[in-house]
Amino acid sequence: MEEIIAKIKKGVQSLYSYVTQPTFKRKTSITYQVLWNYILIFMIVIVLGIFFAGGVGAGYFASIVKDEPVRSEKQLKNSLLNYEETSEVYFADNVYLGKLRTDLERQEVKLEDVSDNVKKALIATEDAYFYEHDGVVPKALMRAVFQEVTGSAVQTGGSTLTQQLIKQQILTNEVSFDRKAKEILLAMRLEKFLEKDEILESYLNISPFGRNSSGRNIAGVQTAAQGIFGVDAKDLSLPQAAFIAGLPQNPYSYTPFTQFGEVKEDISPGLNRMKTVLKRMYNNGDITKKEYEEALKYDIKANLAKRQPSSTERYPYLTYEVEKRAIEIMMPILAKEDGYKQKDLNESEELYQQYYNLADQAIRQNGYKIHTTVNKKMYDNMQKVTKEFPYYQGTRPADKIDPDTGEKVIVNEPVDTGAILIENSTGKILSFVGGRDFEREQLNHATAAVRSNGSTMKPLLVYAPAIEYGVSFPAKTLINAPISINGYSPGNYAGGGITGLTTAREALKKSYNIPAVLQYKEIVNRRPAEYLKKMGFSSLHEADYTNLSTSLGALERGVTVEENTNAFATFANGGEFVDAYMIEKIEDNDGNIIFEHKSKATKVFSPQTAYLTLDMMRDVLTSGTAAGINSKLKFYSDWAGKTGTSQSFRDAWFVATNPNVTFGVWMGYDSNGSVETGGMSYSQRNQSLWARLINSAYDVDPKLIAPSSRHQMPGGIVTRSYCMLTGTLASGACAEAKLTVSDYFNASHLPNGGGNMPTSSESYVFINGKKYLAHKGTPAEFTVKGIAVSSDFFNSIGGQYVTDKSAIMPKGDNYKNLIIGGATLNDNGKAPGAPSVTVNGKAISWSASGDSDVIGYYVYQDGKKVASIKVDDSRSFSSSGKGTYHVVAVDIAGNLSKPSNLIEFNKEEKAEDKKENSQKDDKKKDDKKKDDKKNEEDKKPADEQNEPSDEGESSDDQPAEPREQSKPEEDEDEDEAA
């Protein structure tokens, strides 16, 4: 050991001696200098390299972002804070309805209304240094770059919340250094303008969170909280917050719901992500171990929100209607901001489409609150009644185009319906029924389907305008008989209802077509369809202004239930039209009102015209075509309305108004099939539905639906007696004929009397129940005295268009002694054919003459006329059972037929009768002798001549010869026949 130590010591000493020698020092110095120079050069090269690389990198970075504009503070804030937000719809009285349709649902929320659990979970997971960095974290960024360059399997990401916000709102999701460089630049700039909490709030409102329980795409933490767990963002528990905070990394993988709103069978990806978030929160010290462990045990799947149908699913007709109307409201508002007017939009299809698209985008993405006039309870009640109504007609085959194949197929089409309830004074649409099944037919039958409005057109286009012009009034005399106007021959319902003369009130009550057409013919040159335009009819064509059939609702296109019902409200508003509306106001997401409806009244008719028309329509419900309505209602109100049926029974209508509201209901097939069926009539079905629907609205607001007040009579309405025959003010002659009644008149348009009154007493005959003026030669015994009115008067109300003037004669006892000028019957110019007589016991009867101008028959006994029997009476006679009888036909000119065959009674008398007759003859001879003797004594003329027999009779037993035929009179109406 000592030897070893000695050797080491000796070696050290030798080494020391060597290095201390001058030669070694010189060599060492040279080596050191060389080595140091190398090290120095290497360090310089490295430093230069770093600077060079940095310069190249800086240059490259600068070249990348050189085209990115330098955004101002205002521009950055507008880009990040004005994010899309789903608009909401409200029923009346601020009752929430739902969200409008959009590709991405989002609802804004303030940061203070978000649970702290969400904030902590998000920061711990996405950006642990959020409150320390200035927009980017270099270490994280370098790590991300290194992982990208090396292709590391673990990608931790290098984006802060600020960078993610920039990427979502300003840039794209493109993976490139170009986009990343711009992201870094903008993030650092944004941090100079926004506070951290502003950035965090924006991120929470912008980020996507997968789908909600309705299957809709969602963004924003408030929408996520409600759509996934059914709570507000401020009420999210720790595990719920952790689950939601983990979604933005991969929202559609982690979301628990399918696109149909169903819960996925496997939600483990989202649960695993939640566990990661909880772990980071625990490691970050945001939660305790106990909170961490309890949160892991939380059953996410069991606490997910139940599937909620969207507003479009629950209220499809209403939601789509609100969307359409909101777009129509926003278009001119947006156009005005750019200097355009509504006229510009109407005249340019391209401009119209441009602002339509802008308005459509605005109402879906600007977070508007759209407040409607629709009463939720009334609306819900009406949908329920419509769905459960048991009396719909059955289906009918109809052609339809298969959307998949494009081929025509036959389907069983059900009858559909549309209804609308409008507040008169404001025009508010309180409720409506768009149809029976939106899935089958998306057309809104209340607001968009145009149909013929049938007889509901009559008060709107015929009677109210005629009253306004001063040419009509409720008591106006109208003709209800077959007519032809240049080949147009309208008929009444089912071809019946021919009553002769009638009044405007009666014609409207019973919905007679012919009087309406004649009344319209009188005023059509004044273009009364202009009144329809004033009352909101938007689909009128030029032909609608001139066609007589328009008076019966035969429009070129048609009218919607809304427009038709809205027009009827004009009468309840004293003749002023108030346009119906559904959107009360639109607010932006800051509560500013950008639109608010203001009702405006347009004068259409005078108050007097409106009231007279209303009063006529009251009769429709009391004794007219809707007389059964009141018994179906659970309340009383002063309703005035009109039924309607279109041509070929394609549409059934009933519209009625009271002092507060107007309600209209339509039924029909979309393919225009007939609604006429057996059993309950289409009109009864429609009226029953009308009653049930209005009853359901009454259940919600009785005071509104059933006001205690009645339609108020304005000044200027007077009551006057009028002549039932002419509709003119009553005169003494009319009163003497017992043809006077009373009705309402506009004091400014009282009808004239005098020349239009019954002018003469005339004779007439009955033939087959019809009245004809007697000719000069008509035997008096076949005539009846009555009152005749001049042809001029009846031509003034359309008598010249009547094809059978005898049908003008009104029915009823009041008119039994009435004859209308011009109702004449021509003599056929020849003697009537002889009748054939038969006997049954003592009664004789005979056949009718074959001639149409025969007015009666003479019956003769033993050559003497014993009876005159009118043609409409029984063709029989009870004889005495003695003598010989025959019958002669008599025509209107007094011409007689040849005698009929003879009927003889008692050819052989009994012995007692012979003896009695012989004694009578002997007595007559004795008396004659005494008289002769006395005459001789008095020297007086022998015999006095016998009195001449009656005209047309013979003194013998032979039948009388027919008298000479008179020449037939000229008849102005040669086409008339019995």
Which oligomeric state applies? Answer: single chain
Q: Sheet with the most strands?
A: 5 strands, mixed
Low-pLDDT stretches = 47-67, 152-156, 754-759, 908-915, 937-978
How many strand segments? 32
Termini, distance in Å?
167 Å
Give me the secondary-structure category.
alpha+beta
Helix content: 25-40%
- Strand % is 15-25%
As a whole number of angstroms, the C-alpha radius of gyration is 51 Å
Helices, by number, come to: 30
- The average pLDDT is 83
Cα shape: elongated
As laid out across the biggest beta sheet, the strand order is 2-1-6-14-15
Helix and strand topology:
Layout: H1 2-19, H2 22-65, H3 73-81, E1 88-90, E2 96-99, E3 105-106, H4 116-126, H5 138-150, H6 161-169, H7 177-193, H8 196-206, E4 208-211, E5 217-219, H9 221-229, H10 238-245, H11 251-254, H12 268-283, H13 289-297, H14 311-314, H15 316-337, H16 342-347, H17 349-365, E6 369-372, H18 376-388, E7 396-401, E8 408-413, E9 416-423, E10 429-433, H19 457-469, E11 477-480, E12 500-503, H20 504-510, H21 513-523, H22 529-534, H23 561-572, E13 576-578, E14 583-587, E15 593-596, E16 601-603, H24 607-622, H25 629-632, E17 640-645, E18 651-657, E19 661-668, H26 682-700, H27 702-705, E20 717-723, H28 732-736, E21 740-746, E22 760-767, E23 770-773, E24 784-789, H29 791-796, E25 818-820, E26 837-840, E27 843-846, E28 854-861, E29 864-870, E30 876-878, E31 883-891, E32 903-905, H30 911-938
Parallel strand pairs: 1-6, 3-5, 24-25
Antiparallel strand pairs: 1-2, 4-5, 6-14, 7-8, 9-10, 9-19, 11-12, 13-16, 14-15, 17-18, 18-19, 20-21, 22-23, 22-24, 26-27, 27-30, 28-29, 28-31, 31-32
Helix pairs in contact: 4-10, 4-12, 6-7, 6-8, 10-12, 12-13, 15-17, 18-26, 19-21, 19-24, 20-24
